[in-house]
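[09:14] KT: can someone run the structure on this one? pasting the chain below
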Amino acid sequence: MKKQNVPQPYVNMLQDLHARLFEVPITFRDQVCEECGWSIPTFYRKMKSIDRMSDTGRRRLIPALSNAEKEKIMSVLDEVYLEFWQYCEKYRPEKK
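[09:31] RB: done, structure tokens below
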């Protein structure tokens, strides 16, 4: 069960941003797992994997992530980053 942040009427900006930044990697991980159909252990296993050469005679590259996985990961990253950026708008001074 995810912990929900209860909005407080008066909050310290630094504390609020730090707490949000702390949640970003967890949100990213959870969304990647959901989009790619991975469990959390699979996420960390894939994160540690590296591209490697096959041991067959032709020595071809075996990628750790498929092109579709790479595209989905970048899509999730863009979404999570944009959500955080939009959240921070309340602390930015208004542009004239």
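[09:33] KT: thanks! Strands lie at 52-53, 61-62.
[09:34] RB: yep, looked fine to me
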